[in-house]
Amino acid sequence: MRSRKRIPIAEPDLTGNEEKYVVECIRTGWISSKGKFVEDLEEKFASYMGVKHAIAVSSGTAALHLAVAALDIKPGDEVIMPTFTMIACANVVRYMGAKPVLVDSEPFTWNIDPSKIEDKITEKTKAIMVVHIYGHPADMDPIMRIAKNYGLYVIEDAAEAHGAEYKGRKVGGIGDIGCFSFYANKIITTGEGGMVVTNDDDIAERVRRLRDQGYNVSLRKWLVHDFIGYNYRLTNLQAAVGLAQLERIEEFVKKHRENAHYYNHLLKEIRGITLPPEAPWAKNVYWMYTILINEEILGITRDEMMKRLEDYCIDSRATFLPIHQQPPYKDMYKHEKYPIAEQLGRRGINLPSGNTTSKEDIEYVVSAIKEIISGVKK
Question: pLDDT tens track of the chain, all 378 residues?
């Protein structure tokens, strides 16, 4: 196979209005958290999502932290969440002194298993945090029914799922509050940044004030803060990039889906590789193109496959290590087992699948995988 330049796991496409808008910020001097691009990004993201409120923040983790804080999660409270997710989900709950209560994944979509949630509810449970993993929506109807029956909030972590849909509804806007990340490898980016969305006026107001050190703008008293908040504001410079990205979100979602379908076409005949799912009721945006490696069939582990791909100048990433296996949480959950999540964390690999990934890149990656497998079997 011919040598070639490195294929990154994901990189942003910044060929739209990003430079134009950023230059405008610099020339006008509006570079901090005040400015028209922050307001425009919030307004247009809310419109895209079909929600009343969108509040721009400094990161996806900040969005999750503000969501938990705005729902008044306190020490001693419990928040149910999947163990197969990014560690930030658990961390923000711990920031508030509350406890993450973990649930295994269901095997098809890899999301939180709704059938296992009810067994984890106690009198201390205050919310269910749903994660739309790798761009595939969780099964929201049974989760919303459980939350309603027990009087619980639903937080949607849609950090990886911009534009994904559950039964025709965009995820992030289904529960009480939704959170997005605009990190550089996401479908749209501000470099670092995030967004909180909600249809609840009171929740939105609390998020806005928590984002800005608890400042109560309605009092019109400069530097008067009537509760403790955070500095989680997004800058106008970042919002300028984000607005230009948002203008192309449908193009980027289409690109991710087309790339995933092309990968599926090229990989579907390889026994021992599980392709990413898409339920009949879901629109998966395939934030990452994720496959599972069956080492018993292929004769190679996930980690070995990643090392071999590196020889071909192909970047890849392992799937999330489940929360209960993470060093800060091992002792807390040492008596708990989550077999589906553990299998996903051990077998999963993310292949190059960003906004700039080309068909030629995909063909090269698949050819490399086939060569690696062929070499193992000889």
Answer: 555 689 999 999 999 999 999 999 999 999 999 999 999 999 999 999 999 999 999 999 999 999 999 999 999 999 999 999 999 999 999 999 999 999 999 999 999 999 999 999 999 999 999 999 999 999 999 999 999 999 999 999 999 999 999 999 999 999 999 999 999 999 999 999 999 999 999 999 999 999 999 887 766 666 788 889 999 999 999 999 999 999 999 999 999 999 999 999 999 999 999 999 999 999 999 999 999 999 999 999 999 999 999 999 999 999 999 999 999 999 999 999 999 999 999 999 999 999 999 999 999 999 999 999 998 765
Name residue 317's beta-bridge partners: 350
**276 within 8 A of 286, measured Cβ to Cβ:** yes
Q: Would you say 200 and 175 are in contact if contact means Cβ atoms under 8 Å apart?
A: no
Please state, in angstroms and as integers, the Cα–Cα distance from residue 347 to each residue in 264, 285, 344, following that order.
Answer: 18, 21, 5
What is the C-alpha to C-alpha distance for residues 54 and 246, in angstroms, rounded to an integer? 13
Are the beta carbons of 132 and 157 closer than 8 angstroms? yes
If DSSP codes are grouped into helix, strand and coil, which group holds residue 15? coil
- Largest CA-CA distance found in the chain, in angstroms, rounded: 75
Rounded to whole angstroms, how far apart are CA atoms 130 and 223? 36
DSSP letter assigned to residue 106:
P
DSSP count for the chain of H helices, then E strands? 12, 14
Beta-carbon-side half-sphere exposure of residue 358 (alpha carbons within 13 Å): 5
User: Tokens in use for 27?
Assistant: 């020339």
Determine the angle formed by the axes of helices 302-311 and 359-377, rounding to 10 degrees: 120
Give the neighbor-by-neighbor strand order of the sheet with 165-166. Answer: 169-170, 165-166, 282-283
Given 3-state DSSP classes, what are the helix, strand and coil percentages for the chain, each rounded to the nearest 5?
40, 15, 40
Strand, coil or helix: 194: strand
Tell me the one-letter amino acid at 46.
Answer: A
DSSP-derived 3-state class of residue 38: helix
Q: Which structure tokens are listed for 358?
A: 């080309």
Phi-psi domain of 347 (left: phi exceeds 0; alpha: psi -120 through 50; beta: other): alpha
